[in-house]
Amino acid sequence: MPSRRTFLLGSAASAAALLIASPNGRASTVFEVSHSEAEWRKLLSPRQFQVLRQGGTERPYSSPLNEEHRSGRFSCAGCQLPLFSSSAKFDSHTGWPSFWTPLERAVIERTDRSLGMARTEVLCRRCGGHLGHVFDDGPRPTGLRYCMNGVALAFTPGAA
């Protein structure tokens, strides 16, 4: 019969096996939707690939979604998972589509130290696509600003 220690060590090893090293050296989770780099390049535009798969940032004020004010839903451009409702969108005057909260179980967050400082990176829960970052200077009720790259999102008008 396995001991408690053996069980705990086995559980820790199993959890560690869920982590893999990404090409840019950051640890990343194995996601529900997964493709090879070549497959992602076929599925996404070059700009989408650079943002979603390589953690890039689009130029401020370059996304038409920054000016999108219709009722609808913003989804991941990589896997179509619904991420944000238009009812949570606000004009942050930063040049990127901003939201005060994501949909439930839509995103995951992790620490990003890529620019020599700690920020909170926002990823799609289903495919791990880089969406942007979250900051604590947003409006009520959360006080958060999910500052997203528009190229990482797809908008569906009227969808709840």
Describe this structure in words.
- The chain contains 3 helices and 11 strands, in the order αββααβββββββββ.
- The strands form 3 sheets. Strands 5-6-10-9-8-7 form a 6-stranded antiparallel β-sheet. A 3-stranded antiparallel β-sheet has the order 4-3-11, with no helix packed on it.
- The protein has helices at 4-17, 37-43, 46-53, and strands spanning 19-21, 27-29, 72-76, 82-85, 89-90, 98-99, 107-112, 119-124, 130-135, 145-148, 153-157.
- The N and C termini lie far apart (52 Å).
- It is of the alpha+beta class and 160 residues long.
- Helix content is 18%, strand content 29%.
Strand arrangement within the widest β-sheet reads 5-6-10-9-8-7
**Helix share, percent:** 10-25%
Number of strands: 11
Largest sheet: 6 strands, antiparallel
C-alpha-based Rg, rounded: 17 Å
Order of SSEs: HEEHHEEEEEEEEE
Task: Give the CA-CA distance, first to last residue.
Answer: 52 Å
Helix and strand content put the structural class at: alpha+beta
Strand content: 25-35%
Mean pLDDT: 86
Low-confidence stretches at least 5 residues in length (pLDDT < 50)?
Answer: 2-27
What is the molecular shape? Answer: globular
What count of helical segments does DSSP give?
Answer: 3
